[in-house]
Amino acid sequence: MAKKEKTIVSEKIHTFKLTTYSNGEVVMFRENIGFSPFELLGYCEQIQLETLEMMSGKLKPAIVERQYVKPTKTKKND
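^ thats the sequence. predicted structure below, dont judge the formating
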């Protein structure tokens, strides 16, 4: 039997952006697309519980691997 191709039925996005400026000013930007207030509260509670478990060592945080690419030197055209 062939696997049925999955399709996206709906998508919800909540974005947090925290910007710190050189003068010490901190600005938080949040954008909510599609989540109800009750859904946001539930996800925030889940995030809080997982963060507390990470802090106590009960849960290992997911690690995002990053690769450093050394910039190459470019010759200036004289």
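Residues 37-56 form the longest helix (20 residues).
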